[in-house]
Amino acid sequence: MAPRDYLARSSIAFGDFAVWVHDHRLSVLISTILSTVLAAWIAAGVGADASLDSFFDPEDTTYKNYYDFRADFGSDEIAYILYTAPKAEHGVFDLDVMRSVAELSRSLEREVPFVKDVSSLSSSEFMQSDGDDILVREILHDFPETQEELLKLRKIILSKDIYINNIVSADGRHAAIVLEMSRSATDPTDQIRFDPEGGDGLENLYPQASGAIIRDILERPQFSELNFYNVGDVELNAIYNTIAFTEPVKQLTYSVLIIMVLGLVLLRGGLLALLGPLAVVLIALLMTVAAMALLEWDVDLMFSMIPNLLIAIGVAQSVHLLSEFQLARSHGLARRDALRETMELVGNPCLLAALSTAVGFLAMSGSDLKGISHLSIYGAIGVGFTYILTITLLLSLLSFGGEKARKWKLEHLWLSRGLRWVADINVNRPTTVYAVSILLVLAGIAGIAQLRVDFSFLTDFKPHLKIRQDTEYAEQNMGGMLSLVYVFEAGEDGMKSPENLRVVEQFQRFAEQRELVHKSLSIVDTLKDLNRTFHGDDAEYYRLPEDQELIAQYLLLYELSGGDQLEEYLTSDFSRAVVDLRVTMSGSTEIRALFDELQTYLDEHVEPLGDRLRVEPSGVGLLWVRLADYISSSFTQGYLLVFVMIFILMCVIFRSLKVGALAMIPNLGPIFLTMGYMGWAGINLDYI
Questions:
Q1: pLDDT given for residue 174 in this prediction
Q2: Is 85 left (phi over 0), alpha (psi -120 to 50) or beta?
Q3: Nearest 5°: CA angle at 36, between 33 and 41?
Q4: What does the alpha-carbon distance between residue 122 and residue 103 come to, in Å, rounded to a whole number?
Q5: Rounded distance, CA 326 to CA 330, Å?
Q6: How is residue 85 annotated by DSSP?
Q7: pLDDT of 100 higher than 80
Q8: How far apart are CA 69 and CA 73, in angstroms?
Q9: 79, 234 Cβ separation under 8 angstroms
Q10: For residue 620, what pLDDT band results from cuts at 50, 70 and 90?
Q11: What is the residue-wise DSSP string for 616-635?
Q12: Whose CA is closest to 396, among 311, 342, 319, 339?
């Protein structure tokens, strides 16, 4: 069968289908209503997941390594509350201010859900020598009675590197309260509910529940003399999740207003032109969520693009159908005949548009990122629902009403005149069209060459938002807010070895020389502080002990004296140790470059040690870098596969390689131009 015969028969079939919908309009309408009610009931069971877990497959190697790290050392997420006391004479070391901070620290530890430990100037561990023993207690275990005593303590605190750019700035003007959390953004929903019976709304989940209570405590009148900069993982993630799940609602509202304008102004179709496309889009969106619930998938961050996508597709198809229907009616055709003629004209184009879009989505299903893989499936499902509702619900709505039609004069419609003008240019000046098109495509390709896969969690927030301003202020005055983790493994008791610890120390020193790294923390810092404390706080002894037996004695003495922070940096069998790097919240490209530089160092200095010492990067920071890697590979492989699949689809439908190749021009052109513009404008390709 020739392509023309094939498409002609398809058009006739669409026309017959339109007549069937007209004749069974009540059945179609009732079926749609019942399906919508069922979809709403199913969709009510869908959950929300804004965590990194929504991006990664559980079998992903990086993701599994992160969970191994979590099993040994717990969550690496913190709430970081930087504060100043501008009205106090001695700033953060003012006696009254310190009393307020002590009260605040107790309130945070007692009231904030999912808190494991709270450290501040009033509650951090402080080591003092006592003859042949070491005392480990809170800094203000014996609260100073006078300001002079506190200022003497200030001098001691600022002399200890372990506190600098951790809980106090080097100049002593800023201090911080650090809340170590027991949970993480990667934990499953059933482990992060604040109230077990409170449901899975964002406000009942970590970190939103923790962040809300922290903010409430900081706003209490008794702490009003302090200026707070509430940053860190908890606040950043809580605000991001809230925005991510409320922004689509705003976008949907704005889009609905646009639909109303299109329906009432451009098409002049009255109430039907307003309600028809609107119903198609909203019901398709509801059915898509219901399908996700049946697949046992949560609404994730990738879902935020679906409402606008379905609106673009649904409105485009609805407007196409409505305009042809109104034109047919203006020629005097009855509703039944107008519906037939409309579907004969637009049935094939709408189907091809829906199929090519769905195929484009499905081509991404093989992505290494779970979030993109899921998006490809429910995106295609949403496109399918939109198309089905357009040719059923919208047609059935158009079948109602009287037979009197308003006569439209096409030449009086400015939109039609504009389209005719474009058509005249295409027909009469093809050389100009080709030349302009080639120039635009070349400009697009040049722009694509400049396109980067890069994102920064911090710059996802607009500059005027308080969370971004506070984080930037905290990084300027206290150092990096991003944590990168390296796990050193040496077998049982291997991390008591002076040789292995020296390797860790050298790695820390190398890392701290990198521009992005502001501080590193490990068991090495605790041992050096122990050694100095045991020698009367003599700065000359702020170094690693050289004897393994002495190291073992220090660690035992530390634990017997009440020290409880070893578990943050060392496993109980002394086989694995953590180095925590505090890094500026930069773009993923810069973080990837830092990882590569550190890995090169490890390959040169640790790899030759063989099984004696092994190192594995981990932590949330590495997950972000892997996310960028996966986006880059998904972009390259996914788009190539999309092009191939759409080309094959066009060739099969039109039964011609030539026509299939020509059909790729309107599919590829917008992509080249859009991505080219992103490259020229410096807009990076990111995870949403």
A1: 95
A2: beta
A3: 130
A4: 9
A5: 6
A6: -
A7: yes
A8: 6
A9: yes
A10: confident
A11: EEEHHHHHHHHHHHHHHHHH
A12: 339
Task: Return the sign of the alpha-carbon dihedral for residues 649, 653, 657, 659.
Answer: negative
Contact status, residue 354 vs residue 317, Cβ threshold 8 Å? yes
| Percent of the chain residues past pLDDT 90, beyond the cut | 32
Chain segment 102-115, per-residue pLDDT in tens? 999 999 999 999 99
Spatial CA neighbour of 503 closest among 515, 492, 494: 494
Helix (H) or strand (E) holding 52: none
Q: Is the pTM of this model over 0.85?
A: no
Strand ranges in 158-307 using DSSP code E only, listed in sequence order? 175-181, 227-231
Burial of 305 (0-12, 13-18, 19+ CB in 10 A): middle
Contact 203, 233 (CB under 8 A): no
CB 520 within 8 A of CB 577: no
* Nearest CA-CA partner of 11 in 319, 343, 328, 329: 343
Report the C-alpha dihedral over residues 298, 299, 305, 309, rounded to 10 degrees. 80
Average pLDDT over residues 575-601: 89
Q: What mean pLDDT is predicted for residues 342-366?
A: 85
| Average pLDDT of the segment spanning 444-449 | 84
Say how far apart CA 265 and CA 329 lie, in whole Å.
Answer: 18
Tally the C-alpha atoms within 13 A of residue 419's C-alpha that lie toward its C-beta: 6
Using CA of residue 71, residue 76, residue 77, residue 79, what is the dihedral sign? positive
Mean pLDDT for the chain overall: 84
Which amino acid appears at position 308 of this protein?
A: N
The CA distance from 111 to 537, in Å, is: 36
